Each structure stands twice: as structure tokens, then as C-alpha cells.
């Protein structure tokens, strides 16, 4: 993607520029630079270029090598194999480039994407009057990370929480509330999310039981749906009570998740009611949708049922009711035409992929989506229990999110407490850190595997201090902060004149890649690549500690300063990277 360069371009970018300059006839040919084990970088692009210029690749590689400026960037170039270049950078260039990044505040030298546009992201969309489940957790966690990452790269992001707040099931609920007006009140009142959910649950169960056993109640409930759809004020007022109570509950869960959700961004299914009729009219008039057995349907060549017949997307049912698809199609019109989005991103369970495929295709046929406006489902897999089966309680019921988060925090607090003595944490700090470690563990486990894969929810593994966990990263951060506190008068300062140890070079080169990883993550909607980058960063740091003392009397003062500089930049990169994933990094752990 085109980018406005920040303070300094990365080493990789500088190297790519030097290679291009060394061979003017290459034009815009990609030097195909990769990090390499043999040297710092390997350039593989000579092969394709030689083919294009009908030349000998090794000869061409030799020419490029000779033409490379003997400046300060490159220390050594070696031609290998059929015509690869193995390139070692000068230590000075590494430290100078990192120093420019370090001088760039929170942005750390990461460029803002010049071609940024507006993305509407649909995430964290639970359903009214229902308990949130682990699927809603995934959407919230992955969505929130994508919001932060996209905003950091310069994208204008509009959040939409498409909550399930409409549908025929409300007939039964509202009717029950009409007949038992006091039932939705709960003890504790106000902002108590758990109490709100338990009274919603009670009403849900009681009304369901009545609906299933009492034919007359069933009939009254059906009439209530009609009243709701007709916009009867009293019916709407009762409906609103369900929405309000549910929001109290949603907010309590989001709060536990340490996640900010703003009320104006909650635009549920009901928010598109006024558009449904027009959406259907346009689809019918343009011939995108056709009448079939009384319903308004859109057909697709490649969507067929087991009997071989095409299975349509139903936008208007035979009884005149609108469903999930009509709402999503209306939401697309709103997001494109009113919110001026050029990208629509949906963080939704992979089990809804067929729905989105049909909805997007319908919107394309209607012209709402086109080359200038694209839609993408960031589909995520199922959360499994330790046994590899869909995540359930021992009794086979859905696991309550509050319980799950509470347990994560409890276990994390125990882990934090065990080490707290050494660091001298107060009880208050133990409790606060326990929360950040516990919630971080849940988020990180979710974000560190590719979203589309199913993943096992295993709390023991999540709060483990070893391995690819958030706690490991949080400890890496806290350890650096502790070293910086202990450094006393010695302050971090870059010393480009120094020769670097191998572990210092490896850490420095990895730090250089932060911006490139972020732009890849933003372009492909793959937060797990940021998690992997941060984990590798912490691993480089561990090796660095093994091989290089930071605060040692045997070090010359400039070596101490340069190492403090490297670890401080590492800490800031960890902090920023974790923040983008929605995970806190306590100062002392
Ligand atoms: N509320 C839905 C569910 O719980 C998810 C909504 C996804 N977003 C959308 N625009 N359809 O499954």
C-alpha cells in the first residue's frame, strides 16, 4: 500500500531502494527482500529480473553488487546459489534507523497509510434478552483489535454493533411483560449487569413455557408481533425495556473485557426497519430479486441444497415479514450511502459465511457494492473445549461469559500473587494486575491463532508463564521496566559507533519490522500475525538477556546506554503492539 513515510524508512525499505537504484533498468521490479538466516536479508528478485532481461542471473547479481553504493547501509553482499543476494547490513545503519524510530513518540516510526479510506466494521453483536456466548466474545475481541490496528494505520473507522434486537421472538416476550409488568425489575437495579441478565433469563423462560403450553397466549403473542411491526407506541415501549436491560448486561461484560463500546455505535437490526421496504422494492424492480412461492428471493447458480435445487436468499417472507437478510442488505445501503464506507468488514462466525456470501453477491448485483466499495467477512472458527468439542459446561449448557472471565481473572491473580513478593506488589496492584493478566490471557489466546481456525479454550494453558501467552509478553515488558528503573543515572541512548553482538543485531532487526507487520495485518485482517510478531520480539529479548548483560560494571558506559536504548524501544514496541490487541502491560509484575 502507498504510504506517507514517517520519520525514517525501515532498513528493509532503505535496502530495497538501494537495490532498485543499483539497477535502473529494473524499473519497478520487486527485489523480493526476505529476512534470512544466512545474512540479514536475502534478495530473490534477481532471478525474475534476469529472465525478463534475458540475461544470466549470477552475472546480473554480480553487476547489482558492484553497483550498490558503498555507503553506510550495507556491510557485505554475497552472491549465492543461482543468483540470490545475501546482504548484511552495517551495525551503524541498524542503530541509526532505530534511533529515528525511537524519536517518533507512540508511532514508533510507523507510517500512516496515504491511501486510507473509511471502513465500517461490524463486530461485538450480541442478541437482546439472551446470554452472550463465546462466539460473541471472539467477535468482540477480534473486532476491537482490528479497530485499533486500522485506526493506527490511518484508516477512518466507523464501528457498528449490529445487535439482534428485532424479530418475531419479541412478540412472546413483550406480551408476557404486558401481562406481568413487574417481572423485569431486578434487585440491585441500575447498572448491575448480572442481575439484569438473570431477570431477562427468567422472563425468557417463563414466556417460552407459556408460549409452548398455552394456545391463547401464543395467539396473543402473534398479535403482539403485528403490533410491534406496526409501531404501536405501548408495544414499542415494552420492547425498549428489553433493549435497555440487555444493554446494562452487555456493558457489564464489555467492561469486564476492558473494552470500550460507545452507545451511538450500537445500531441493531431494528435500526434499519425504515429501509426494509425500499430495499425490497429496489431489489424487485431491478430484477435482482424475484417472487417465488409468494416470497421475494434471490437465486445463485452455485448455492444448492442437498436435493440439487437452488436455495435462495429470502429477503421477504411469504407472510410479508422481513428477516436477517433484508436487514443486512439495508445496513449495506446505509453504510455505503450514508456513512460513505469504501470497505465493509464483518467480524462474524464462519457458520454465517453462506449468508454473507449471498448478501454480498446480492448487493453487488444491485450495485451497492462495486469496485470502489468492497465487503469482507473476517470469519472466525468455533471455540472448542479442552476435549475438542464445542465449548460447553459439564452439564452441556452454554458457558456464561461472566463466569469464564471471572475464572480467568481468578487464575491469573493466583499466578501474579505467587511472584508478587519478589516485586513488592501491594494487594491493590495484585488485584489490578490479575485482571489485566486474566483478561489479556483470554484475548491473546483468541488473537494468536488464525481467526478462521477453531481453537481450544484452555485456561491452564492461557495463563501459563511459558510459551506463546500474553503473560509471557507482559512479563517481558515488566522486566524491561524494572531494568530501566534499576538503571539509575544511566539513560537509554543510541550509540551507532558501537559494534553489535549477534543477539543485539537480531533484536534490532526484528524491531525494524514492526511497521511492515502492521501494514500486513491491516491489509489482510490478520491480527494473529501481530501476536506472532510480539511473541518473537519477546523471544529475541530472552536470547538477548542470555547473551548480553545490560547493567554490568564490566560494560563501558556507552554499551550500557546503547543496550538500555534497545530494551526501551523493545518495551515501547511491546506496549504499543499489545495495546493494539487490546491488552494492557502493567509496569510492575
Ligand atoms: N447477532 C448475530 C449473532 O449473534 C450476529 C450479527 C452479525 N452481523 C451482521 N451484520 N449480521 O449471531
From TrEMBL:
Keywords: Aminoacyl-tRNA synthetase, ATP-binding, Cytoplasm, Ligase, Nucleotide-binding, Protein biosynthesis. Monomer. GO terms for molecular function: arginine-tRNA ligase activity; ATP binding. It is found in: Cytoplasm. NCBIfam families: argS. Pfam families: Arg_tRNA_synt_N, DALR_1, tRNA-synt_1d. Its EC number is 6.1.1.19. It comes from the Bacteria. Residues 473-589 form the DALR anticodon binding domain. Residues 9-89 form the Arginyl tRNA synthetase N-terminal domain. GO terms for biological process: arginyl-tRNA aminoacylation. The gene is argS. InterPro entries: aa-tRNA-synth_I_CS, Arg-tRNA-ligase, Arg-tRNA-synth_N, Arg-tRNA-synth_N_sf, ArgRS_core, DALR_anticod-bd, Rossmann-like_a/b/a_fold, tRNAsynth_Ia_anticodon-bd. One of its GO terms (cellular component) is cytoplasm. This is Arginine--tRNA ligase. Belongs to the class-I aminoacyl-tRNA synthetase family. PROSITE patterns: AA_TRNA_LIGASE_I. It comes from Streptomyces nitrosporeus.
Amino acid at each position: 500500500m502507498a504510504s506517507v513515510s514517517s520519520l525514517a524508512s525501515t532498513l528493509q525499505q532503505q535496502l530495497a531502494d538501494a537495490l532498485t537504484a543499483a539497477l535502473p533498468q529494473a524499473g519497478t521490479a520487486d527485489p523480493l527482500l526476505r529476512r534470512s538466516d544466512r545474512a540479514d536479508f536475502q534478495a530473490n528478485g534477481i532471478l525474475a529480473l534476469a529472465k525478463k532481461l534475458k540475461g544470466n542471473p549470477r552475472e546480473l547479481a554480480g553487476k547489482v553488487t558492484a553497483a550498490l553504493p558503498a555507503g553506510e547501509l550495507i556491510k557485505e553482499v554475497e552472491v549465492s546459489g543461482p543468483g540470490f543476494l545475501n546482504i548484511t547490513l552495517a551495525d551503524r545503519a541498524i542503530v541509526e534507523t532505530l534511533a529515528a524510530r525511537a524519536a517518533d513518540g507512540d508511532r514508533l516510526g510507523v507510517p500512516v497509510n496515504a491511501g486510507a479510506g473509511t471502513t465500517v466494521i461490524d463486530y461485538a453483536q450480541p442478541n437482546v434478552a439472551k446470554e452472550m456466548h463465546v462466539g460473541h466474545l471472539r467477535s468482540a475481541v477480534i473486532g476491537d483489535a482490528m479497530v485499533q490496528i486500522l485506526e493506527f494505520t490511518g484508516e477512518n473507522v466507523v464501528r457498528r454493533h449490529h445487535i439482534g434486537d428485532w424479530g418475531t421472538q419479541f412478540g412472546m416476550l413483550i406480551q408476557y411483560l404486558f401481562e406481568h409488568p413487574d417481572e423485569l425489575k431486578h434487585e440491585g437495579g441500575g447498572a448491575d449487569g448480572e442481575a439484569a441478565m438473570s431477570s431477562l433469563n427468567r422472563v425468557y423462560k417463563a414466556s417460552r413455557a407459556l408460549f409452548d403450553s398455552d394456545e391463547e397466549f401464543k395467539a396473543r403473542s402473534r398479535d403482539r408481533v403485528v403490533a410491534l411491526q406496526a409501531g404501536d407506541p405501548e408495544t414499542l415501549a415494552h420492547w425498549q425495556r428489553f433493549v435497555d436491560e440487555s444493554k446494562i448486561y452487555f456493558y457489564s461484560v464489555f467492561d469486564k473485557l476492558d473494552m470500550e463500546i460507545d452507545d451511538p455505535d450500537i445500531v441493531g437490526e431494528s435500526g434499519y426497519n425504515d429501509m426494509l421496504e425500499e430495499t425490497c422494492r429496489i431489489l424487485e424492480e431491478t430484477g435482482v430479486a424475484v417472487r417465488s412461492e409468494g416470497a421475494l428471493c434471490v437465486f445463485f447458480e452455485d448455492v444448492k441444497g442437498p436435493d440439487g435445487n437452488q436455495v435462495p436468499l429470502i429477503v421477504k417472507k411469504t407472510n410479508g415479514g422481513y428477516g436477517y437478510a433484508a436487514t443486512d442488505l439495508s445496513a449495506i445501503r446505509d453504510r455505503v450511502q450514508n456513512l460513505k464506507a469504501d470497505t465493509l468488514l464483518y467480524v462474524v462466525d464462519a457458520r454465517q459465511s453462506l449468508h454473507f456470501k449471498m448478501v454480498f453477491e446480492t448487493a453487488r448485483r444491485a450495485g451497492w457494492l462495486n469496485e470502489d466499495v468492497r465487503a469482507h467477512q473476517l470469519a472466525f472458527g468455533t471455540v472448542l473445549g479442552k476435549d475438542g468439542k464445542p465449548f460447553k459446561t459439564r452439564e452441556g449448557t452454554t458457558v456464561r461469559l461472566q463466569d469464564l472471565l471471572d475464572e480467568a481473572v481468578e487464575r491469573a491473580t493466583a499466578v501474579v500473587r505467587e511472584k508478587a513478593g519478589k516485586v513488592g506488589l501491594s494487594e491493590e496492584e495484585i488485584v489490578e494486575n490479575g485482571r489485566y493478566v486474566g483478561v489479556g490471557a483470554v484475548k491473546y489466546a483468541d488473537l494468536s491463532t488464525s481467526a478462521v481456525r477453531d481453537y481450544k479454550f484452555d485456561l491452564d494453558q492461557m495463563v501459563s508463564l511459558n510459551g506463546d501467552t500474553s503473560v509471557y509478553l507482559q512479563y517481558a515488558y515488566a522486566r524491561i521496566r524494572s531494568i530501566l528503573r534499576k538503571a539509575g543515572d544511566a539513560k537509554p541512548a543510541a550509540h551507532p559507533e558501537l559494534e553489535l553482538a549477534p543477539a543485539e543485531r537480531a533484536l534490532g532487526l526484528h524491531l525494524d519490522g514492526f511497521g511492515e507487520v502492521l501494514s500486513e495485518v491491516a491489509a489482510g485482517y490478520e491480527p494473529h500475525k501481530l501476536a506472532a510478531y510480539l511473541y518473537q520480539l519477546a523471544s529475541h529479548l530472552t536470547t538477548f538477556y542470555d547473551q548480553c548483560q545490560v547493567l554490568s560494571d564490566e560494560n563501558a558506559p556507552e554499551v550500557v546506554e546503547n543496550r538500555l536504548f534497545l530494551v526501551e524501544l523493545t518495551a515501547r514496541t511491546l506496549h504499543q503492539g499489545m495495546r493494539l490487541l487490546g491488552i494492557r502491560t502493567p509496569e510492575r509484575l
